[in-house]
Write a structure and sequence with these properties.
By secondary structure, this protein is α+β, with helices and mostly antiparallel strands. Helices cover 61% and strands 10% of the residues. It has seven helices and six strands, in the order ααααβαββαβαββ. A hairpin with a 2-residue loop joins strand 5 and strand 6 (276-282). It starts with a helix and ends in a 6-residue tail after the last strand.
């Protein structure tokens, strides 16, 4: 509570005390409600005059305090408004400063970018001019470009897929679910799109081509594929990368060479790594 409010409270208490002990006691009544004209007239005039004068002065002081309180309250509200206005000005200045720094940074970036681009263009023109003067202009056929683009697209498509072999084929099969069940054994749960390759034949199980969203997921699955050899349900199923026709032919020749080497020397362990058949040394059960 402010000092002015405290003074008003004390003044009110003082007026109440005056009424209770000076006026009421002097007139021998219990309360203000019991006062009447006759009793008031019986009071000594000089005492009444003194009390009346004191009351007038007290009321005057009270009004003065109330006026001061009102003025102080208005000044306080004005100061609050000025403070809010000053804070808003500071916020506006901070915003202007940030915007100015952003504009300066963008201007510097644009200048650097333009300078670098101009330098690169100039160097490229110089290099291109030297190459053109030194070498005859090569001619690339449209079909060659088209073939290169197709090859790149196919390689990218194959990098996001793999092949599944010896997966039993059924009528109305839910192929995505079947492939997903196999991948769960490898602790992998990617979203798959699976489809059989080739025409249906009752005496032959068609391979399954599986496509994933990323080549990273494919690499993880291929790295774990050998775990299926110990699977109670899918030990005959094997997974390999999705190869192009040329790659399939090369792999077929490697498998044939691997089989030939194993038949020639059953005491050693042979395996395919990359594009070659490797000698893994004596088998564990033949080491003496």
């Amino acid at each position: 509570m402010g000092s002015t409010a405290v003074e008003c409270t004390l003044l009110a208490e003082e007026v109440g005390t005056w009424l209770k002990y000076n006026v009421i006691d002097a007139l021998s009544v219990d309360s203000v409600e019991n006062l009447n004209i006759t009793k008031c007239q019986s009071m000594i005039k000089d005492l009444m005059s003194r009390h009346f004068l004191k009351a007038v002065r007290l009321l005057s002081e009270q009004n003065s305090y109330l006026e001061k309180y009102g003025l102080l309250k208005e000044e306080n509200e004005a100061l609050k408004s000025k403070l809010i206005e000053s804070q808003q000005q500071v916020i506006d200045l901070q915003g202007d400063l940030v915007a100015s720094k952003t504009d300066q940074m963008q201007a510097v970036q644009a200048t650097v970018k333009t300078s670098v681009e101009d330098t690169v263009k100039a160097e490229m023109k110089s290099y291109s001019k030297v190459v053109q003067e030194s070498l005859p202009a090569p001619v690339i056929a449209h079909e060659t470009v088209k073939s290169i683009v197709q090859t790149v697209v196919q390689q990218e498509d194959r990098s996001r897929g793999f092949m599944v072999f010896n997966l039993p084929e059924e009528d109305d099969e839910q192929l995505n679910s079947k492939v997903g069940e196999i991948l769960l054994e490898l602790d992998e749960k990617p979203k798959v799109e699976a489809s059989r390759i080739g025409q249906y034949h009752s005496e032959k199980v068609r391979a399954v081509k599986v496509t994933l969203s990323t080549s990273v997921a494919v690499s993880q699955i291929l790295a774990k594929a050998r775990k299926l050899r110990t699977s109670p349900k899918h030990s005959s199923v094997y997974i390999s990368q999705d190869r192009s026709p040329a790659e399939r032919e090369q792999h077929r020749l490697l498998v044939a060479e691997l089989k030939k080497m194993r038949d020639a020397d059953k005491s050693k362990r042979y395996y395919i790594k990359g594009d070659v058949v490797c000698d893994g040394g004596p088998k564990k059960d033949t080491v003496t």
